[in-house]
Write a structure and sequence with these properties.
It is built from 3 helices and 3 strands; from the N terminus they run βαβαβα. By secondary structure, it is of the alpha/beta class. The radius of gyration is 12 Å and the shape is globular.
């Protein structure tokens, strides 16, 4: 099993790199499972949003990990609770 873990995705540039390239890399490298740390993925550089989560899942991410900065975007709390 091939697992890809991408550490600390930060801001717009980090998110766009994943959204534009991950599916291709999954195919090229026969990756079975993708984990992304996204606690700083918001365009401000801290926090995570529901839309970013949905975009990541759509482009091949299986699991999103977080840390203390995830709470910097308050709307994420409701999304985490329901997911």
């Amino acid at each position: 099993m091939r697992i890809l873990f991408l550490g600390d995705v930060v801001g717009f540039s980090g998110c766009s790199k994943i959204m534009n390239n991950l599916l291709n890399q999954i195919k090229i490298n026969a990756i079975d499972f993708v984990i992304v740390n996204a606690e700083n993925a918001d365009q401000s550089g801290v926090g995570l949003t529901e839309q970013i989560c949905k975009d990541f899942f759509r482009c091949g991410v299986n699991v999103i990990t977080t840390g203390n900065h995830v709470w910097d975007q308050k709307d994420i709390m409701k999304f985490i609770e329901k997911e």
